[in-house]
Each structure stands twice: as structure tokens, then as C-alpha cells.
TrEMBL record:
The keyword Transmembrane applies. Belongs to the bacterial sugar transferase family. It is found in: Membrane. Its main location: membrane. This is TIGR03013 family PEP-CTERM/XrtA system glycosyltransferase. Keywords: Membrane, Transferase, Transmembrane, Transmembrane helix. The keyword Cytoplasm does not apply.
Length: 464
């Protein structure tokens, strides 16, 4: 199984998953007995079918909960935001539930599905609230000792500074090592060891040691590290630790060997054909679901800009192996948006029309790229393709940027889920960290997770 998925299934996540299942099954039987008590003269549910509905409802609700990020223990959302997400999940599960029962024609009391959905929503909200008042997030918490306090160790302070970033992690301290940069960590607990590392680690119940010293040669206490490993203490370098905990790659601290000895993604013709068939089938399925929205988008653009105005526009982007291709979108900017040449798209770009703003918010402007998927220029999951006007400079300024060309670009990607709208070279560097992580760990399950989590982007505007 993909390590990214395993990374997400922690003790605290399992508590939430199990609690949700108990809440849904409990809601079903509460509803079952309430309805049969008050409507006993009406139809009674056949005992054979009694477990069908809660199982279907629990599975579909859990899938939707996963897709909107509610199983992410590091989700940054207020409780009211969580309630809204639960409501959306239950509503979607209710629609699926009704469709299943219409197709199977199982006996069911009148309005049972509606009662069940309402009670499920209430129980899920209550259980989530009760969980928020407990310390469940500390289950499986690991004591971390960082070997180093300089430039390499500083990435933890820079990119894992929020409380949510450190859920499940308890940093005991950062050991000052010989050769560490003085321009290192500022606000973390620095330690100067006065005893062997292995003695300190055992005494403080360290679970994991992160090697993040700036200078390793003749500096690392290898004997103590070997003893720690024999004691069952996990030893990781800063790059692997950061990848595992944040889902991104520290571009500035990766050596060429990371690329050279990393996994290869060159596939044979059969795999390429199957990959295209899979993406093409999804593209056609989405088209049959979304064509009414596409038609409304076309009409809205025509009404706003006149019936002679173009609806679609195409741009040259860089794809697999650095080859250019034309990408298609619904036009969301004014007709003279690039009269002065290519520019970065901004988060609140004044060139975007009123209709275009709505299309962008819900990613409707991206739907014509289904044609790119059918052509084979793109897949559903992968790094977002950039314009050649920008990539030429990126290849010079940003280390390992051309590694993005080793996989097919996608409609959605890991970077789109994890990072907001990019509008500068700095943003390009940040998004590359997630793209490289995806390239390293990509696989069917990881792609499936990204597709599910894209629901969160579409419904709640995350990553715009």
C-alpha cells in the first residue's frame, strides 16, 4: 500500500473513523426502532435487509468524509466548518441511499431515509464535538529528538510551526551539533548534551531521532545512533522525516542522489494504454454528469461578454517529457487580459470577469480539459502544467524543476490539495515540493486519494 495512505492512518485517525461508524450504525438502529414504534401499523423492515442500509450509508458517508478532509487530523477548520462538511457528506450519502433503494426496491417505511439522514447528521456532529473536547489527537504521539539546530533543522521551525502541523509529534528538543549554522532555529528548545546520546534517548523515552545537522562528517555519534536503533528507536534523516510528516519535499536540502536512486516511472506500452483507458473512461463519465453545467457556463459567458465573444481559449503548456501541448479552458478573463504579454494569474485577479470568478471558484473553467485527457495530453492526477514562458526560467532558478516532466500533467494534483493558488516564482517553488513528493510516491491508491480529496477543493474552494 502507498506510504502516503499509511501515513494518514494513525491512531487518532482510527479513533475518528471507528467513532463515525458507531455513530452511523447507532443512528440507524435508533431511527429503526423509533419509526417502527410510531409506525407499527405500517410496513416493518424485513430482518434480512436490516444491515444493508447502515452498511451502504456508513461506507458512502465515510468515503465522502474522506473526500472533504475530515479524516485529516491536521485539518485547519473551525467547528462550524466541520459541521458544514458533515452536512454535505450526509446529504450526498442520502442521495446515494435513495438511489440504491429505488433500484433494489427494498421495503422501507415512508420517509425512513430522511429520518435516518437527519439523525445521522446529528449524531456525527455530537460525536465530533465530544471528540474535540478530548485529547484523542495525542494517541500514538511520538517523542522526537532532532540532531541539529542549524540551517537543515530550521525547516521544521519554518514549515511545521503551527499546532496542527505537530499533532502526533512531541519535540523534546534540538541538539546543538558541531558545524551547525548560527542562523538556525530561533524559537525551539535547544539542548547541549552532557551525556551519550543513547543514554539521553532512553532516559527521555525518545521514539524517533531526526538527523538534521549541517555537517555530518566526523560529527555524527554513529555508535550511539547504532545503540539507539538496537533499542527500537527510529532513526530518520531530515528529508525523509519532512516528507513523511508534511507530504512535501525539501527542495533546498535534496541531493541529486534523491533523484538518481528514486523510483522510475517509465512504463511499457501496455501500461500506457491501460492508463489512458482508465483516464478516458473517467473523463467520459464526468462529461455525462457535468455537461449541463458546461452548457450553463457557455450561456453565462455569452450573456456577460456578448454572443460574438469566444467561450473557449487555449494556451500552450509544457507536458510529459517537456513537450508542448494546447490546453483548453472556459474563458474566465476579459478579452484583452494579456494585451501586454503573459502574466501570472493572481488569487484576486482584476482581469477575471464576474462569470469567470464563479467558474474558477468551482473549477468549472477546467472542464474543457476533459478533451485534453481524451487526447492523452493530460491525466486526471499529476502536476499542473505551466506555460513555457515561465518554465524556461524555472528550470534555471529552481533545483529539480524539470523532474515535473517525468509524469503526465493532470487536472488535479497533490500540490492543488496542499497549497493555495500560485502567483509567483516563490509559489512555484512551494508547489514543486508537493509535486516532487507526488512523483516519488505516485501510484493507483495515491491517485485515488487525490481524486477523492479534490471534492474538498471543488466544494469549499480550497487551493484556489
Amino acid at each position: 500500500m502507498n506510504s502516503t495512505l499509511l501515513n494518514g492512518i494513525k491512531a487518532s485517525s482510527l479513533v475518528v473513523i471507528i467513532t463515525d461508524y458507531i455513530a452511523i450504525v447507532g443512528a440507524y438502529f435508533l431511527c429503526y426502532y423509533m419509526v417502527n414504534y410510531y409506525l407499527s401499523s405500517q410496513i416493518h423492515i424485513v430482518i434480512v435487509n436490516q444491515w444493508v442500509q447502515p452498511i451502504i450509508f456508513a461506507i458512502t458517508t465515510s468515503i465522502f468524509i474522506l473526500s472533504v478532509g475530515l479524516y485529516n487530523i491536521k485539518l485547519r477548520a473551525t467547528f462550524s466548518g466541520i459541521v458544514v462538511r458533515i452536512f454535505v457528506c450526509v446529504l450526498l450519502a442520502y442521495v446515494i441511499d435513495k438511489l440504491v433503494y429505488l433500484l433494489t426496491r427494498f421495503n422501507q417505511p415512508e420517509h425512513f431515509a430522511e429520518y435516518f439522514a437527519i439523525i445521522t447528521f446529528c449524531t456525527l456532529v455530537v460525536t465530533r464535538y465530544l471528540l474535540s473536547k478530548t485529547a484523542y489527537q495525542r494517541l500514538g504521539e511520538r517523542n522526537i529528538l532532532v540532531l541539529g539546530s542549524g540551517e537543515r533543522a530550521k525547516v521544521i521551525e519554518q514549515y511545521m510551526r503551527r499546532k496542527t502541523d505537530r499533532i502526533g509529534l512531541n519535540f523534546i528538543g534540538f541538539i546543538v551539533m558541531q558545524g551547525d549554522s548560527t542562523d538556525g532555529i530561533k524559537n525551539e528548545q535547544k539542548l547541549v548534551l552532557e551525556e551519550p546520546l543513547d543514554v539521553f534517548a532512553v532516559k527521555n523515552r525518545i521514539d524517533e531521532i531526526v538527523v538534521a545537522c549541517d555537517e555530518r562528517r566526523n560529527v555524527l555519534p554513529n555508535e550511539s545512533l547504532a545503540i539507539c536503533k538496537r533499542q527500537g528507536i527510529n532513526i530518520k534523516n531530515i528529508v525523509d522525516f519532512f516528507e513523511h510528516e508534511t507530504g512535501q519535499v525539501v527542495v533546498t536540502q535534496v541531493y541529486p542522489s534523491w533523484i538518481i536512486y528514486g523510483p522510475s516511472h517509465r512504463y511499457n506500452q501496455l501500461h500506457k494504454t491501460l492508463d489512458w483507458l482508465f483516464n478516458a473512461c473517467i473523463a467520459l463519465a464526468i462529461f455525462f454528469i457535468t455537461w449541463p453545467f458546461m452548457l450553463i457556463a457557455i450561456l453565462a459567458i455569452k450573456v456577460e461578454d456578448g454572443f460574438s465573444a469566444p467561450v473557449l481559449y487555449s494556451q500552450t503548456r509544457v507536458g510529459l517529457d517537456g513537450k508542448p501541448f494546447s490546453i483548453y479552458k472556459f474563458r474566465s478573463m476579459s478579452l484583452d487580459a494579456e494585451k501586454d504579454g503573459a502574466k501570472w494569474a493572481q488569487a484576486a485577479d482584476p482581469r477575471v470577469t464576474k462569470v469567470g470568478n464563479f467558474l474558477r471558484k468551482y473549477r468549472i473553467d477546467e472542464l474543457p480539459q476533459l478533451f485534453n485527457v481524451l487526447k492523452g495530453d493530460m491525466g486526471f492526477v499529476g502536476p499542473r502544467p505551466e506555460r513555457p514562458q515561465f518554465t524556461k526560467q524555472f528550470e534555471i532558478d529552481i533545483p529539480f524543476y524539470n523532474q515535473r516532466y517525468s509524469v503526465r500533467p493532470g487536472l488535479t494534483g497533490w500540490a492543488q490539495l496542499k497549497y493555495p493558488y500560485g502567483s509567483s516564482e516563490k509559489d512555484a517553488i512551494e508547489k514543486l515540493k508537493y509535486d516532487l513528493y507526488y512523483i516519488k510516491y505516485r501510484g493507483f491508491l495515491f491517485d485515488l486519494l487525490i481524486l477523492l480529496r479534490t471534492t474538498e477543493v471543488v466544494l469549499f474552494g480550497k487551493g484556489r
